[in-house]
Design goal:
The chain is mainly beta. Helix content is 0%, strand content 63%. The chain contains no helices and 10 strands. The mean pLDDT is 94.
């Protein structure tokens, strides 16, 4: 079983082939497009482990964009005591669901 560690959106993800991951939104992509992750930190194939310094040159992980949307709404409140100031607003973080097709 092949396993890889990739970096995208300032976060690191451990992925395998056929797995679907939820990542930060990437600009300029539509559903069904191919996504290339060129920042590969590690690849493990059985007992063979290859670790980059910091990344592996010439290696990439390929995925397919399956879904694009927004996450659950969170409420954000700001309050300052003794000044009658309070604000409440909501936020929904955009995301993309990517299925890993090739490591």
């Amino acid at each position: 079983m092949k396993l890889a560690v990739i970096e995208t959106g300032g976060k690191q993800y451990t992925v395998t082939e056929g797995e679907t991951i939820t990542i930060e939104k990437l600009d300029g992509l539509n559903v069904g497009d191919s996504v290339d992750f060129e920042s590969v930190l590690m690849i493990a194939d059985g007992d063979t482990v290859t670790i980059g310094e910091p990344t592996l040159k010439g290696k990439k992980v390929i995925g397919t964009l399956k879904e694009e949307g927004k996450g659950k709404k969170i409420r954000v409140s700001r309050f300052r005591s003794k000044s009658r100031y309070h604000r409440t607003y909501g936020h929904r973080q955009p995301f993309m669901a990517v299925e890993i097709t090739k490591i």
